[in-house]
Amino acid sequence: MRRRLFGLTVGLSACFTVASPVYAEPPETPRFGPEIEPYGTYDGQKACDPAEKPGVREFANMLLEAYPESRFGRIEESCDADDDISEHKEGRAFDWMMDAYDEDQHAQVDEVIAWLFATDEHGNEHALFRRLGLMYIIWDEQIWGDYRHDDGWRPSSGHKDHVHFSFYWEGARKETSWWTGRLDRRTAASEDVAVFYAYGWNSSRIHVWLSTGGSFSYRGSGGWWGASRGYSLEQVAGRMVAGDFDGDGDSDIATFYQYTHGARIHMWLSSGGSFSYQGSDGWWRIDPPYSLWRIADRMTVGDYNGDGRDDIAVFYDHGKGATFIHVWLSTGSSFVFQGGSGWWRTTQGYWLSKVGDRMVSGRFGR
Predict the structure, then answer these.
(1) Which of 6, 18, 57, 366 places its Cα 20 to 30 Å from the Cα of 295?
(2) What pLDDT is stored for residue 24 in this prediction?
(3) pLDDT per residue over 134-156, tens digit each?
(4) Helix extents (H) in the chain
(5) Can you give the pTM of this predicted structure?
(6) Cα 167 from Cα 43, distance rounded (Å)
(7) Backbone angles phi, psi at 173, to 5 degrees
(8) What is the DSSP letter of 52?
(9) How far is the C-alpha of 103 from the C-alpha of 170, rounded, in Å?
(10) Rounded to whole angstroms, how far apart are CA atoms 76 and 58?
(11) 170 and 214 Cβ atoms separated by less than 8 Å
């Protein structure tokens, strides 16, 4: 029997404008700020890794809990399947079994689509579709893609007995704002450029160029931070990295500074319009010798423990082919060194003279 509701829950109706009447009740919706994931570009299946991804499974569970009479179709698909490209083969697509000829089930699907497409209180269109990291949906011989949102619904084929949801990798991995509660600006906005400029006599400034999406806007020679004396960039060399070390969505700057009897990681936190130096003690310090010449400029940044804050890694040369990858995990206000043994090491045969300063971080495996 159809359950006719004349609105969603109070919390949901406060956040979204959804057409009424609606049927049943979509999943509960948290509140979000105004920032949101941008529309993406098509990222179809390229490899085969059919193990279901966590964001896809939890989205499926949400729908099945909200509509307990509906049925789970599939997430995974065998690599040997004969059909064309399918995100099922990467574990990032979900088939929700619904009958387009059944009036009640069609109404429930319409309600979920309205929930996903609703404009939020900040004026963001297709708000939850974007926050969940969905890429496209196929239902009742029509397809709608985030990457072609201006085209609206387009003709497709089939899908009369199920709704197909395909996810971007960020949504499939639970890395979007629906799951994290915050926006990862590394994937949501254009990035900017900063340099550390030495004026001589240990005077230095951080100059910034903000991206417009098609050019850079220089913010002036005064910089976003400056020291008239006492900060020698010779002690930094090329060991300067940017990352969201406090997890607030803005990129910060860290340098590894060599002292006579030790080393420190200095931090500048971004306010979105300037940098705030966190002091000469740094977010990490070691007073016994830690020779930064053994690192050279092999210093990189990534969220290595997946907690939403960026961390630091270096490649340390112990000599004679012995090398270690040292890691500092961010707590949001300091770094915790993970020990001299590193996250990886070899005692022989890996010569960093053959690497130079060529060290990067990235998401290389899935």
Answers:
(1) 366
(2) 60
(3) 999 999 999 999 999 999 999 99
(4) 10-15, 54-66, 103-117, 127-131, 169-172, 177-180, 185-188
(5) 0.56
(6) 9
(7) -90, 0
(8) P
(9) 34
(10) 14
(11) no
Positive or negative, the Cα torsion across 23, 164, 113, 142?
Answer: negative
Taking a C-beta distance cutoff of 8 angstroms, is the pair 192, 209 a contact?
yes
54 prior amide bond cis, ω within 30: no
Which two tokens mark 229? Answer: 């004396």
Both structure tokens of 11? 């919390």
- The whole-angstrom separation of Cα 253 and Cα 75 is 40
Planar angle of CA 356, 359, 360, nearest 5 degrees: 160
Helix (H) / strand (E) element for 200: namely strand 193-200
Asked if 326 contacts 332 with a C-beta cutoff of 8 angstroms, the reply is: no
pLDDT value at 71 more than 50? yes
pLDDT tens, 180-209?
887 655 555 578 999 999 998 989 999 999
| Rounded Cα gap, residues 224 and 197, in angstroms | 11
* CB atoms inside a 10 Å sphere around CB 221: 10
Of 239, 174, 225, residue with least CA distance to 197: 225
SS3 350: coil
| Tokens standing for residue 167 | 């996810």
Which of 130, 153, 171 is CA-nearest to residue 38?
A: 130
Can you tell me the distance from the alpha carbon of 34 to that of 38, in angstroms, rounded to the nearest whole number? 12
- In whole angstroms, what is the distance from residue 247 CA to residue 186 CA? 12
DSSP collapsed to 3 states, the chain: CCCEECCCCHHHHHHECCCCCEECCCCCCCCCCCCCCCCCCCCCCCCCCCCCCHHHHHHHHHHHHHCCCCEEEECCCCCCCCCCCCHHHHCCEEEEECCCCCHHHHHHHHHHHHHHHCCECCCCCCHHHHHCCEEEEEECCEEEEHHHHHHCCEECCCCCCCEEEEECHHHHCCCCHHHHCCCCHHHHCCCCEEEEEEEECCEEEEEEEEECCCCEEECCCCCCEEECCCCCHHHCCCCEEEECCCCCCCCEEEEEEEECCEEEEEEEEECCCCEEECCCCCCEEECCCCCHHHCCCCEEEECCCCCCCCEEEEEEEEECCEEEEEEEEECCCCEEECCCCCCEEECCCCCHHHCCCCCCCCCCCC
